[in-house]
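Case study: Glutathione-independent formaldehyde dehydrogenase.
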Amino acid sequence: MSGNRGVVYLGPGKVEVQSIDDPKFSAPDGRKIEHAVILRVVSTNICGSDQHMVRGRTTAPQGLVLGHEITGEVIEKGADVEMLNVGDLVSVPFNVACGRCRTCRTLDTGVCLTVNPARAGGAFGYVDMGGWIGGQAKYVMVPYADFNLLRFPDKDRAMAKIRDLTMLSDILPTGFHGAVKAGVGVGSTVYVAGAGPVGLAAAASARILGAAVVMIGDFNKERLAHAKKVGFEPVDLSQSDRLGEMVAEIVGVPEVDAAIDAVGFEAVGHSGKEQPAVVLNQMMEITRAAGSIGIPGLYVTEDPGASETAAKQGNLSLRFGLGWAKAQSFHTGQTPVLRYNRQLMTAILHDRLPIADIVNAEIISLEDAAKGYESFDKGAATKYVLDPHGDLGKAA
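Here is what the predicted structure looks like once written out:
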């Protein structure tokens, strides 16, 4: 291992691939740890959550190595790692979780109590999530490896499906979690807000869970066209601000059984201006009485770039009384990837979930990461997958 390179955040609107330190068996506070492995990164993806930081919409510090969607090969392991071996190909949940605390023991790994001194929950390469170095790099260290890592049982078979399996680190479990918490089941009518990669993953999850109709709303016509191409009902939000009426045109009534917010705090209203609560308020309007709303879209405690003063501290103009009156259920928070990734891996390996095609995955080199960020920020209907060592190109 030598010559590590990684994607570094340099300030609002700017990322750069730079030489970075090789990973070591040490925690962010400098403690030596033996429960970790070092991975040679096989694939690592650009996420919409990364874009929030790069746009300057968080308190992310300059110099942060980005990347929380990681798949890799074990090249070194600590003395306390018993269940993994050098050479294993593994998927890395974006959650950093200890496996020992109260929340980890109930598989609520998105809010591990020990890996982040500031608050519950840790993640790789992300602001306020414990200081764990990100994996948009050639090599990365992963702590609590026996608990966190999902080993692919057959390396060759996994590499043949690597474009799909790379989505197990975040967006596929995140979309699935949103669909599960929204109560999607056989015969459900479902509305997904946002036709980006997480929205498409949520729609794909709703379909595999048995939904009868899956609608996806967005302003981006390229993303809507792709959603239609892969079998979902597009809802062009630029055509009207009456979402219920557009839903009724598809399913006959102005309501759905389940709604999923895959947009988050940078939501834009019909006027074209930011309205951070607009999607949540729309969800309450169109979700049936006693229905559920899954919220995998990111909301932050601080948003220095917010257009509304209250939103700078994470306060939203939420019409909560409507949701209360309709006895709706809401579920928010970081997805506990470990709760779902093994089942989703099996669905991929048995050709039940062609998620790479659904999210329109495109492989680019690590050195082209800045171009990928720029294109994704402009609304490209693409999920960019970084290929640090050229492995994915060879597999394709």
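For the exam, be able to explain this: The radius of gyration is 20 Å.
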